């Protein structure tokens, strides 16, 4: 590949289980697809994941303990610079890292960043999906969503990602001054997909073809993704759940969380929930 410009990284960011995968599947069907739906695992062709172990082992000159937080932070900039110097002019990067600095290392270095899309989701629905994906109870998940030093990953080919707590994660991206971030809500992706995904393409600097976008959205519907997953295991699934594409609905927290659980989320994250229109 041709060497990229310095500011080549375009982030597709979210707190875990907020709709990042669905966003990337729609984009893959728009940018890479045709008359038939892309295979679900073709989403890996769209860009990169910043947690891929290969980036860090290359930066380290060999394997290391992916759960080593200090080592991962120390290798962070070099791992991203490898993408900048060897990747395309615009490299789409999936991340669950929050936009902050640890040990004087920027997790999302503005010097290499072109822009970002940030997917936000109601924390109640995040809790339901996160618990299923990681094999935790709802209460354990809610506690984890309030933990400032929370991480995910660190095994099975993925380096640690530093998520912090849900509110800090959202705010770190939404309040960015160093580069432009377009914040979209998972719920709006459901309710007004053409409008939302069209705005995503515009923010990325990609021309919007209405017919092509309609087709990409149709090819990315959850019934299609679920049908494919029945015959092809999805690479981003875990051993904790029978399928990755569970329901694809919004608002399930209303029927599946207790009042105490809803109150706990609201008490901890009420300020950001209100800013996002959830309260």
TrEMBL record:
GO terms for molecular function: sulfotransferase activity. Residues 10-276 form the Sulfotransferase domain. It comes from the Bacteria. InterPro entries: P-loop_NTPase (IPR027417), Sulfotransferase_dom (IPR000863). Coiled coil: none annotated. The keyword Transcription regulation does not apply. The keyword Coiled coil does not apply. Keywords: Transferase. Belongs to the sulfotransferase 1 family. This is Sulfotransferase domain-containing protein. It comes from Yoonia ponticola. The lineage of its organism: Bacteria, Pseudomonadati, Pseudomonadota, Alphaproteobacteria, Rhodobacterales.
């Amino acid at each position: 590949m041709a060497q990229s410009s310095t500011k080549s990284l375009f982030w597709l960011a979210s707190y875990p289980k907020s709709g990042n995968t669905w966003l990337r599947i729609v984009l893959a069907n728009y940018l890479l697809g045709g008359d038939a739906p892309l295979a679900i695992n073709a989403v890996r062709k769209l860009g990169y994941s910043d947690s891929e172990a290969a980036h860090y082992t290359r930066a380290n000159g060999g394997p290391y303990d992916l759960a080593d937080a200090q080592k991962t932070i120390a290798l962070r900039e070099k791992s991203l610079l490898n993408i900048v110097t060897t990747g395309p002019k615009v490299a789409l990067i999936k991340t669950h890292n929050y936009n902050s600095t640890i040990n004087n290392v920027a997790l999302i270095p503005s010097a290499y960043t072109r822009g970002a899309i940030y997917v936000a989701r109601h924390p109640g629905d995040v809790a339901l999906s996160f618990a299923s994906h990681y094999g935790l109870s709802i209460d354990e998940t809610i506690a984890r969503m309030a933990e400032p030093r929370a991480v995910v990953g660190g095994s099975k080919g993925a380096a640690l990602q530093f998520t912090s707590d849900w509110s800090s994660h959202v705010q770190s991206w939404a309040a960015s001054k160093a580069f432009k971030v377009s914040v979209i809500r998972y719920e709006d992706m459901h309710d007004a997909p053409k409008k939302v995904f069209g705005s995503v393409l515009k923010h990325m600097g990609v021309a919007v073809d209405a017919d092509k976008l309609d087709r990409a959205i149709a090819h990315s519907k959850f019934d299609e993704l679920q049908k494919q997953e029945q015959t092809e295991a999805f690479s981003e699934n875990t051993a904790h759940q029978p399928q990755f594409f569970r329901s694809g609905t919004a608002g399930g927290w209303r029927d599946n969380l207790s009042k105490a659980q809803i109150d706990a989320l609201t008490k901890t994250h009420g300020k950001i929930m209100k800013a996002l229109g959830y309260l």
